[in-house]
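Residues determine shape. Take a concrete instance:
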Amino acid sequence: MQERSTCSESIIQTTMRPTNVAVILLFTFLLSSVNSEDPYRYLTWKVTYGDIYPLGVKQQGILINGQFPGPQIDAVTNENLIISVYNYLREPFLISWNGLQHRRNSWQDGVFGTSCPIPPGKNFTYALQVKDQIGSYFYFPSLGMHKAAGGFGGIRIWSRPLIPVPFPPPAGDFTILAGDWFKLDHHRLRRLLENGHSLPLPDGVLINGRGWNGNTFTVDQGKTYRFRISNVGLTTSINFRIQGHKLKLVEVEGSHTLQNTYSSLDIHLGQSVSVLVTADQPVKDYYIVVSTRFTRQVLTTTSVLHYSNSRTGVSGPVPPGPTLDITSSVFQARTIRWNLTASGPRPNPQGSYHYGLIKPSRTIMLANSAPYINGKQRYAVNSVSYSAPDTPLKLADYFNIPGVFYVGSIPAYPTGGNAYLQTSVMGANFHEFVEIVFQNWETSVQSWHIDGYSFFVVGFGSGQWTPESRAKYNLRDTVARCTTQVYPKSWTAIYMALDNVGMWNIRSENWERQYLGQQLYLRVYTPSNSWRDEYPVPKNALLCGRASGRHTRPF
């Protein structure tokens, strides 16, 4: 367990004399100016290959500072993170930050639509700010199938000291990065996809990079602990539970929730949640269980919840979880609500933002499909299967490079036509308030993520969405998050305020589907050309493709 880090300020004591009063006043002014800026944290990461044995078989993993999973990031609301990443792999590398909003700064998003990869043997320094955010997130490698080899880690954003949190400080804070895992290395998985094949079934499930009983979480009887769980897998939803213990949900991707209690929780691809667990059972060890959801072959793994004075190991059968049942998952999802009276990253209550009173300026419908194009398996949105360009979209936009993409290259509604390849970019205007409907006519659960934003999941239902479906919306206390599921042959609707200028990735969190085209970019545009609305290109931005040889800015 990593303890929360704190920011301290140095105290300077000075004996005042008449001759140095002016100097002291000047120094005090300068010091106050420096301290008024949000604090900085500096991290240096070395990305390497390394041998890992997550399922008992030697594999080539991607390590950060020799660790699998990578090091945890801790930050306090509004802090700046300066992360220097050195790429010692034999291939280009990019890191993205699942859930961080990068206010006015999509340059730092770490996906190929915004950033050039870090070449082998080179480095790049990310400059991130966790502006107006709290909560539980994770980072991951975004290129190719690198995510299948590791390179991911947890992110905890703590509330500022004077901002009230709607539960007492827990006795400890644990991060659980769970998800399905393949024994095939990421190169072979990528070749399978590029040759038009689907991925095989996963070989197992990991908790923090290890298999059965590979981790132990030690607790004291009678105390309460926070568990932050993220689904970092590639293809499947998971269910999380702890033998004999209840899970009190308190946070979902930066939103404090109503504190409902569950025996287990479904966590879909790319999602993160926080629960409180009280060690209120007899002194012994208990199973922590993660299993796959909606798969006919259920994969399961365990860790150990160890009471500090226990001399009795885990025993009995591993507690079973839900498997194929959709209805229970839908019911549970409907119970996850916003805590209207709790503060978020700011002192005002979350419920002071009345999203349900704002009328959307337009409706966008995004329908996923699984077509074959040129004889190969692809995935598409509104019949468009995303084809990556040779130059990051954000750079092409900034330098006005023609021929890389055009705005409107994907329709805002399903067309029903034949699927085709295209670099799909949808246009939108700064300060629009939009309704987005994710329509899923397939038989698998979909998981959608939007970079740069948190949105309100106002409704979901079965069948085809129609304007009459709005009668079922929750316009009062639905949760705000950045990743949402869409159940089979169903729809999910969200409201989103476009208050963050930039080029933002909308993608499937199923990595096979994302890699083979189920993604697009939303270009949120303003003509103002003001730093107030969007930061300029970073002076250290890597340039590649048709942006090579150009210049960023001198300062």
